[in-house]
Structure formats: structure tokens, C-alpha cells
Amino acid sequence: MELVKDDETYASQKVIAGVVLTLGLPLVDNVHVVSVATGTKCIEGDFMSEKGLSLNDCHAEVLATRCLRDFLYSQIDALKSFEGSPIETNSLPLQGIILESVGSTEDSILRIKLKDNVKFHLYISTSPCGDARIFSPKGLEPEVIDLTAAPCAPGEEVIDTHPNRINRGVLRAKIEAAEGTIPVANLSSAPQTWDGIMLGNALHTMSCSDKICRWNVLGIQGALLSVFMDPIYYSSIVLGSLHHPVHFKRAVYSRIENLTKVEDPYRVNLPKLLMVADRGKRRVTKSPNHSITWTCSWNSYEIISSAKGRCEPGGVASRLAKRLAFIRFLKLYKTGTGGRDDFVNISYEGAKHLATKYQESKMKFMEWMKESGYGVWISKPIEQDSFVL
Fold first, then answer.
1. To 10 degrees, the CA torsion angle through 240, 243, 244, 248?
2. Which residue from 40, 23, 17 is spatially nearest to 294, judged by alpha carbons?
3. Does 174 score more than 80 pLDDT?
4. pLDDT, tens digit (0-9, with 9 covering 90-100), for 287-297
5. Is pLDDT above 90 for 265?
6. Cβ burial, residue 186 (10 Å; 0-12/13-18/19+)
7. Is the pLDDT score of 280 beyond 90?
8. Burial letters for 115-136: b for 16+ Cβ neighbours within 10 Å, e otherwise?
9. Which of 41, 172, 227, 326 is a plausible cystine mate for 181, CB 3.0–4.6 Å?
10. Which DSSP category does 336 fall into?
11. Is 290 strand, coil or helix?
12. Calpha distance 154→141 (Å, rounded)
């Protein structure tokens, strides 16, 4: 990896992801790398932070998307600076090019939109963990097709006789202090609790396949930025290895194609799905215990301990941590509304619920997954998002 090529400790990586921005056509002449991240592990329960200082999920595609959100905050700061706001900002790549102000709401909340010619694209060096990877690179191949059956007529679907077909599409959770995923149906139906985790219960995090699927409904901007802007979706997702088109498509959006009851402007996004010609082969390698993150709005990259969710060395909070994003949100919220008093004691969770349409669409997405038989979405203990500044 170019960022750390001179450091043998961090140069070896198992999964790398990145976000690319394009400005109109032709794409090849208008491409800008926004973020790059690596990683395959999640935080251990002992290191969860009730102050929003630790990163829970250090998988590459999740971190690359968090870097994108950080980039969007920087772009909003730059936009506000252009409009004469007191927000200070340094010179940024693409400054003033990708966002535009569209006024404010009746409550005087700032509204910003992505310019029409701006598109974001996600690259992952391998299939995202969970439903997209569990059946890949194998798929609907001879051993899973009933060869004794009569040939399918035009328009008929191939009958799937795979012995594990019942688990196709189900929600899956990452395992604490390990790699891989298991169906959420195999886990306790009770919500995860803070004291239970502290007593030694395993901490579970939703798989990357499931998170990408949710991004295709709610957008990649997250709840806080949804207070200021409409959803932003990936226009394409590119995989580098260990992929299968059927499982890839099912994992990221086929499961939700018939979901219609979401609040406008939210919708089911159908990104272009692209895969390199060479699927790659399984390689036995040891996964690093760290992640690396970088975005073009930073002057330097970060190295994060996956188990602790904090930067190393030193254990300081990442710039991607919830607390730092919350600080940036409140700064925008205050200036955008002319300086409210009621924002002072709002919690991180309370701030996320200011995006009412986002939250309503989120609930409908989760209800759809449950009613469709895919499972119940697992959330972190509520104490984790209850902090105030």
C-alpha cells in the first residue's frame, strides 16, 4: 500500500477499499480519489466507548465510507466559508465544486445538495463479508443445480438445490475478536446490553454486505448529515476478487428491490455492480490487527488498532470517531439555525433523530428485512450513543 510502503509493520494488508468521485463525463478524465482504508476486524467489547471515542467497525469498506463522510463535512465547512460564515477552513481538494446550498428549511436548518454531475463509487478488493462472500466465489454451478431436471424453458429460473440455500440472503453478524460472520438467527433475540458486554457477552456487529444493503436505502451520508442534505448513494460498486455476480447482486440490493414504503427522498438505490475479470484465488494469510484510513481532506493517514478502535500509537480518538463527527455536526447545526439554545444538551442519539425521514426509512428497512424472513437487525447497546458534549 503506497501510504505506508516504507513501513513493513503496516504495509501488508488483507482487504483494501476506496471511494472515488467522478465529475461528469468522460469518467476517466474526471476521477478523484476521496478515501482509502484497510481492515478486516471489529472492536473488542472491553474497549467500547460510552463517550463516542472508539470505532466499532474497522472493516475497510466501512472505514472508507466514514472517511467519505468526513470529507463531506469538510466540503460543507468550505461551502459555508464561501458564503461568509465564521466557520474556518483550510484549502481543500475539490473545494466548492461538489456541493451547493439550496437555502434552509422553515426551522432555518441549512440545506445542501450534491451537484448533479458528482458521483461516488466504492471499490473493495474482495467481496464484502456476509451474504456476498459466504457463497462466493462458488455459486449456481453444476453441483447446486438439479441436473436430473428437465431444461428450463425461456424465462424460467434455475432451481437452486444448494444444501445451504436456506441461508441465502439472511442477515449476518461479525464475530468479536475473530473474522467471518454467522446468521443473526443463531444469536440471542434479546438486544445487546452494555452491562452484558462488560460481563463477557460477545459483541456482534452487522456484516458489511448488510451495511451496504442498508446504504442502498438510507444513503452513505449517515443520520447526522441527513439533517442537512438528501441521501447520497454509491453510483457503482466494484469488487476485486472472490466474487460471484448472483450473490453480489442479492447481497447489496436484490433483497430490497421490492421495498417501496420509504420516505421521499429515500429510495432503493440500484448501483452498477462491476467485477474484475480475474476472480482471484483464496490465499492463506494472517490478518493485520490494525486498519489504515486516509481521506483527501487530511494531511496524514491514521493507523487504528482494530481491537481498541483508536489510533496507534497513543490510543487517541480517530478523526472518524462518533464524538468528533458530533462536534462538527453541532457546529453546523448551530450556525445553520442562527445559534439555538436547545442544541446544547442534545445527545448524539437525539441528534440522529433530528433526521426524521431518515429514521422512518430506517425503521421501514429493518421491518422489511424481518418480514421478508432475512432476520432482525442487531444494534449496539443504547448507552453507546447516549453521550452529550
1. -90
2. 17
3. yes
4. 789 999 999 99
5. yes
6. exposed
7. no
8. eeebbbbbbbbbbbbbbbbbbb
9. 172
10. H
11. strand
12. 19
Tens of pLDDT along 66-115? Answer: 999 999 999 998 887 655 444 444 456 676 679 988 877 666 677 899 99
Q: What span, in angstroms and rounded, lies between the C-alpha atoms of 100 and 97?
A: 8
Task: Return d(Cα 213, Cα 46) in angstroms, integer.
Answer: 29
Q: Count CA within 13 A, CB hemisphere, residue 16.
A: 14
> Which ranges in the chain belong to alpha helices (H)?
8-11, 60-82, 131-134, 194-198, 208-218, 222-226, 245-252, 322-336, 348-352, 356-371
Q: Residues 28-43: pLDDT tens digits? A: 778 999 999 999 999 9
63 grid coordinates: 472505514
Q: Environment class of residue 81 by beta-carbon count within 10 Å: exposed (0-12), middle (13-18) or buried (19+)?
A: middle
- How is residue 113 written as a grid cell? 445538495
Taking Cα atoms as reference points, which of 137, 207, 138, 131 lies closest to residue 166? 131
Active-site residues: which are they? 61
C-beta of residue 79 within 8 angstroms of C-beta of residue 112: yes
Cα 337–Cα 224–Cα 24 angle in degrees, nearest 5? 95
The size of the chain, in residues, is 389
